[in-house]
Specification:
This protein is of the alpha/beta class. Helix content is 51%, strand content 16%.
Length: 94
């Protein structure tokens, strides 16, 4: 079993029904195999804002999950991460 499969299984057991992500991430494919709906975005910042919105709309009952690529993806996501942090919004980033 691969690490991505274990992460997807943990997310499934924790009740995650949707994962937002930027392509080329093993966790997204593992999540799809675990019957977690995946939504693909074209820019990391947009994806984090979507995860942020999920958490806000449900008052934190369903935490938004975002999977990004390493390296430049982290830099592109930083603005949205800072916004969620500043507003104390729970978001899980992978």
């Amino acid at each position: 079993m691969r690490v991505a499969d274990v992460v997807a299984e943990i997310l499934k057991r924790e009740g995650v029904e949707l994962i937002i992500g930027y392509p080329v991430n093993d966790v997204l494919e593992a999540a799809a195999r675990a019957d977690i709906r995946t939504v693909i975005v074209r820019q990391e910042r947009v994806g984090i804002h979507m995860a942020d919105a999920m958490s806000r709309v449900t008052s934190g009952q369903r935490i938004g999950v975002f999977a990004m690529q390493h390296g430049p993806g982290t830099e592109n996501a930083f603005g949205a991460v800072a916004q969620a942090y500043a507003d104390s919004v729970p978001v899980l980033l992978l």
